[in-house]
Amino acid sequence: MSQLTDSLDEAYRKWSSSAAAVLAKSRRVEVDELPGDAESLLATTTADGLTIRPLYTRKDETAEPGLPGEYPFVRGADPHRDVNVGWRVTERFGDGETRSAAEVNEAILDAFVNGASGLWLAVGDGVAASDLAEILTGVYLDLIPVTLDAGADAVAASRAYLELRRTAQEAPVAARPTAATTGSLGLSPLTATFSGRPTITAAEATGLAAELVESGQAIRAFRVDGADFATAGADDSLQLALTVAAALGHLRDLTAAGISASKALAQLTFAVSADDNQFATIAKFRALRKMWARVADVVGEREAGAAITHGVTDLSMLSQRDPWVNMLRTTIAAFGAGVGGADQVTVLGFDAAIPADLRTSGAQFSRRVARNTQLLLLEESNIGRVIDPAGGSWFVESLTDDLAASAWNIFTEIEGLGGYRAALDAGWIADRVGAALAARDDAVAHRKTAVTGVNEFPNLGEKPIERALAGDSAVATGTPKLARVGRAFEGLRDRSDARLESVGARPQVLMIPLGSVAEHNGRTTFVSNLLASGGIDGVNPGPVTAEEVAAHVASTPTSIGVICGTKKRYTEDGPAVLAAARAAGLATVLLAGPLAEWPDQDNAPDGSLKAGIDAISTLTGLVDQLDATSGSTGDQS
């Protein structure tokens, strides 16, 4: 063992030395001048403060976490998962339905014929509790896991559904119930109270759970919904902590009602938000199971602590601009949820962030893409044929443990405040989620977090979408606290669209490229991309000399220009071009790149556009100025 350790240490030293040499070369310094070792310089920090190292080796190997279906359930809740089926492909129906109950039933059966194997049914907004019998005609309720989302109508919908289950036709071939076939009444009053979703009271939910325990029906009452926190901006550690804290609140309610801990645990399932951070999503499902197993252990029922999970692609990561990119985001999220051991997965449509009446693609197309995203992973990539395929990965196991430990620390802090309800009433939860949202928004604004099609590689020529007066909460599964990642940039694009419709042109900024295309192309491309993310059209006339500046200013309706070139070109031609731009009437002249590259700091441009700036603040200021100076000298709009 000592020889193996020595060998690993030596291999790591060689890697570290080689990596340091590469870093030093890229920074044009000596190795001993680097501000740290290679590992620290190449490490990254997640939104919730976890450190991701650049290299994981056998030295990071952790103890075997047990088999799937065994405590601590890190590797999965189900020891009997059918590897020919994998997780359940759960499709959502019922949101704002204008179709008849018979038509909804036809759409559901068509989804099952084409690969769906689970049903998530919204009741109360287009689908009434009295419609359930007709809507679920032909659905084998003992084989298909049904999850309700009935909001304030949950009591009536639950009772109607339970009666339907009692009298429903059994499937021709019986199958043993598993974690993946576990249905839920979808009750989550504690998390819904935070997010503002319609809900019943916790007391009513506890009463329904007690009825289920009494009747012995194989269905669970609670679906503790972590998406209520995720879509409001909570980072992964905070999501897990709040979800487990809310679940513990319901567990205490159930035991206080006289239900044994083992039976109370059997009334809970979890909804987990899956986003396009692949490894974080994998670890999140595994960490949740580890945390919940610990809770079950503390209440004396460790073998009943298998957390059944329903993964749902994160609505807040979806963009309204260039929504086709959402297909890639949801594919990564579905992969992460499946590999992480989700028992059911729902992929929201690529246009789910757009209110239904404003979508340009047919509902059937969106549903088919979402469903086939999972079917490709299951049936062609065979992801579901291995239980816990990431198990044993030094990185994934380390990340799981780190995430679980971080979330557990927050969870114990909540317990120290008196539990979930006390933390919610004191405003602690709102403050913590708000702080996490602010940190995420800051990373997006500085473009440290890239949102393709929004703050990176935007398509300014994209056909504008109409705006919904009700805002993001009008979209299906949205809540009053929904805060989409790209919303600030999309707000600027909305202003641009409004101006385009009003005056026939978007706000424009004149780019003033210096030197050859090879010299300025990198920075003109950067500036054009940056401006477009705020809805500003960067006008690029090609290489410009000081003598040509006035003509381009006269022909471009703007009061702002950006000089683009190399440091050498700034030294040679910059001052003359700057003087010409100001003489031609540009109120603001900016520099592409750091101002330190400008040769005359006493007569420098008015600011700079460079990597790392607060793009939202900068672009908002530019748009405000362009709106205020519309019609002034040089503006022909």
Instruction: Provide the CATH topology of the domain at 182-421.
Output: TIM Barrel
Provide mean pLDDT, rounded. Answer: 93
Structural class: alpha/beta
Characterize the largest beta sheet: strand count, sense, and whether it forms a barrel: 8 strands, parallel
Question: What is the name of the CATH architecture of the domain at 182-421?
Answer: Alpha-Beta Barrel
Cofactor: adenosylcob(III)alamin
Family: Belongs to the methylmalonyl-CoA mutase family.
Pfam families: MM_CoA_mutase
Subunit structure: Heterodimer of an alpha and a beta chain.
Explain what the structure shows.
Among the domains are: 2-60, no CATH class; 182-421, TIM Barrel (Alpha-Beta Barrel); 499-628, Rossmann fold, CATH 3.40.50.280. The chain has 637 residues and is an alpha/beta fold. It contains 21 helices and 15 strands. Helix content is 45%, strand content 11%. It starts with a helix and ends in a 9-residue tail after the last helix. Helix 9 runs parallel beside helix 11 and helix 11 (278-298) packs parallel to helix 12 (326-339). An eight-stranded parallel beta sheet has the order 5-4-3-10-9-8-7-6. A five-stranded parallel beta sheet has the order 12-11-13-14-15, with helices on both faces. The protein has a two-stranded antiparallel ribbon with strand order 1-2. Residues 631-637 have low confidence and may be disordered.
